[in-house]
Specification:
The chain is α+β, with helices and mostly antiparallel strands. It has one domain: 3-Layer(aba) Sandwich (Aminopeptidase). The chain is globular.
Length: 113
C-alpha cells in the first residue's frame, strides 16, 4: 500500500489492458485505506471485471484495515451504483483536489470489514 503505483488490469483471455486501479490514503491510525483512480475501457463496463478486482483488493486490504473507502464523483452515477452493489454505503461528501485537474465534488463511500 506504500508504492503509490497503480495496478494494471489485464484480460487473461485476450491479453488486452482492461483498466487500472490503486490504493491510496492509507491511514494506519484509522485502519482505513481508499481504493480508487479506477478506470476501465468502455468495452469492459458491465462485464464483471470491477467486482472481481474489487473482491481481490478487499480480501487483501482486510488483512490490514477495517474500513475501505472510495471517492466517487457526485455526478458519476454509474460508479455510485456499482460501488453500492458491492455493499458500500455513502458516509460523507467532500471536495477533492485531483492532480493537474480542478477540484471536484465527491461522495465518500465505505465498506467495513
Amino acid at each position: 500500500m506504500l508504492s503509490k503505483g497503480a495496478f494494471l488490469i489485464i484480460d487473461k483471455k485476450t491479453n488486452e489492458a482492461v483498466g487500472s486501479t490503486r490504493f491510496y490514503e492509507y491511514e494506519p491510525e484509522n485502519k482505513s485505506v481508499f481504493i480508487g483512480y479506477t478506470f476501465y475501457g468502455r468495452k469492459y463496463w458491465g462485464t464483471g471485471f470491477n467486482p472481481q478486482v474489487k473482491k481481490m483488493m478487499f480480501d487483501y486490504s482486510f488483512n490490514a484495515v477495517d474500513k475501505i473507502r472510495f471517492h466517487i464523483g457526485a455526478e458519476n452515477y454509474r460508479s455510485q451504483i456499482a460501488i453500492g452493489r458491492l455493499g458500500a454505503k455513502k458516509i460523507d461528501e467532500q471536495v477533492v483536489a485531483y492532480y493537474n485537474e480542478p477540484s471536484r465534488y465527491n461522495f465518500v463511500y465505505e465498506i467495513e470489514k
